[in-house]
Amino acid sequence: MWKDVDEPNFRLELDTSHVYLMSELGMLQHTKKEILPGGQLQFIEMCKDKIGLVHIIDNNGTLYQGITSMHNAFGTGHIDFNKVMPALHDIANYKGEWWVVDLVFNEDAWNILKDAKEFIDVLNNKYGDY
Fold first, then answer.
1. What's the predicted TM-score (pTM) here?
2. pLDDT of the chain, 130 residues: tens digit per residue
3. What ranges do the domains of the chain cover?
4. What's the rounded Cα separation, in Å, for the pair 95 and 107?
5. For the domain 8-127, what is the CATH superfamily, name and number?
């Protein structure tokens, strides 16, 4: 689709939770599951120079109401952000000025927002501001 649109300002939105479930677990695939041997990092590499926005959140391998990826608090899922964040910057060339912290489906989103910011601050200090 990205190639079909063929417009320089058309970019993809990458959600770390969705990428994990699709590339590593093959969730919601109704036929033979197809996953990527390189998982999330391979998916990110496939998106090189195409990402316009990143939704950043963790996932523990579950779906929300069987429909879409569950968005778990940082550190409570299976996403290795110490691999994902450098890949977004160095492999996919994501140069966005900000990320969306996606706390959807969390009844206590306001209460975990402070912890989310602290988690992201650690990533920023470790890998530099994106």
1. 0.89
2. 777 888 888 899 999 999 999 999 999 988 999 999 999 999 999 999 999 999 999 999 999 999 999 999 999 999 999 999 999 999 999 988 888 888 888 888 888 899 999 999 998 888 775 5
3. 8-127
4. 31
5. Divalent-metal-dependent TIM barrel enzymes (3.20.20.150)
